[in-house]
Design goal:
flat; mainly alpha
């Protein structure tokens, strides 16, 4: 693994034939190193002394070596976690310590042997390691009694915003729910930093289900480009409880830009469809927008409501003659989604059948069949 002199390769090719015939005959050093990594993974816990070498190999320029070394570390399991914690806390090689932290994150839940050392030294570790290790501790909070306290102290008092946020996000992963955690999250709701308020609210919602307290701070994340996607996701998770945030979500929907939106709908539209039917009355006015992308987002969002969007479905009919091709296509397909199988859509659906996208062609064929079975093309998925 460490590219030692060729005599080691000779040893592999001769001595190992007795135990692993044909395994090291590739005459390719990287192939041999890949096989060594696999073999050490096969050894399981007995390969603990190889952890440093496997860790170095997990950053190798050769992807095959890198991947198999990473897998081997996971297969060694708990003994490897303890070794990785020692490398992290030793700190003599910054790059190796960072690699060890990344490896630990992938090893959850087999990280118990690393926790005592990490908990003791977490507060004094470099910023990059604290950010990488915070999720490891958060997910393992049930395994060590001090984890909540250590992460909570960092979340409250660290002078580095990224570290505070990493600790707050990690606490939201905790399977342990206690009063100290709830107090910490509630304190964060009044922090002067928007990011801290937002992630405190996210943690309060995800751990305690307290949507009433969390909603204002989460909704405020819609105004921040870095937080917007997560805010939209959280509001969708809340469902009907996020009703008061619908107007702000509709504003996000109006400006959202998505590549191939019929395949990957706007995230704000998905969230609105999960919040409930009352959101439809706020979406419908966007159909009149002079901006084609806004009209497109509104059409697709109404389609996401399925049969529940039938009341607004009639508003899609004028868009069958929209000057923008993508808006016309979306209107025809969304009419079918909401259960309005009308003949007005037939010309546009036949237009879609001439497209090269099998996803759209199949969808259009299905929509035609629901209007009239005689209209269904013989082979829509081209």
């Amino acid at each position: 693994l460490d590219r030692r002199p060729s005599r080691w390769r000779t040893w592999l090719e001769t001595k190992t034939l007795r135990y692993w015939p044909k395994r090291f005959l590739a005459r390719d050093w990287n192939v041999d190193r890949r096989e060594v990594a696999k073999l050490l993974g096969d050894f399981g816990e007995q390969a603990r002394p190889a952890v440093p070498a496997l860790l170095r190999a997990s950053a190798d320029a050769n992807w095959d070596v890198q991947e198999n070394a990473s897998v081997a570390l996971t297969r060694i399991g708990e003994p490897a976690a303890g070794e990785l914690a020692a490398i992290i806390c030793d700190g003599r090689d910054r790059a190796l310590s960072e690699r060890a932290a990344m490896a630990l994150e992938r090893m959850h839940p087999r990280t118990r042997s690393a926790l005592p050392r990490l908990v003791d030294e977490f507060s004094g570790l470099p910023e990059n390691l604290q950010i990488l290790l915070a999720p490891v501790l958060g997910r393992s909070a049930a395994e060590h009694p001090r984890i909540i306290g250590v992460l909570g102290e960092v979340a409250r008092s660290s002078t580095r915003l990224n570290v505070r946020l990493a600790a707050l996000k990690a606490l939201a992963l905790s399977p342990v729910l206690d009063d100290d955690l709830k107090t910490l999250m509630n304190e964060g709701l009044s922090d002067p930093m928007l990011e801290v308020r937002f992630h405190s609210a996210a943690g309060l919602w995800r751990t305690m289900g307290d949507h009433a307290a969390a909603l204002p701070a989460i909704a405020s994340g819609l105004t921040n480009g870095a937080l917007r996607i997560e805010a939209v996701t959280l509001l969708g998770e809340m469902g009907e409880a996020a009703g008061p945030a619908v107007p702000e979500l509709v504003r996000v929907l109006a400006d959202e830009r998505v590549y191939r939106p019929l395949r990957t709908p706007p995230s704000a539209g998905i969230a609105l469809s999960r919040i409930g039917d009352r959101a439809l009355e706020f979406v419908a006015p966007l159909l009149q927008s002079t901006n084609a992308q806004t009209r497109l987002n509104a059409v697709i969002t109404i389609g996401l409501f399925g049969p529940r969007g039938g009341a607004q479905g009639r508003d899609l009919l004028p868009l069958l003659s929209d000057p923008e091709r993508e808006v016309r296509f979306s209107a025809a397909l969304s009419l079918s989604s909401v259960g309005l199988h009308v003949s007005n859509a037939v010309p546009v659906l036949f237009e879609i059948l001439d497209e090269d996208d099998p996803f759209l062609v199949t969808w259009a064929g299905d929509a035609l069949a629901k209007i009239d079975s005689k209209l269904a093309p013989g082979n829509t998925a081209r």
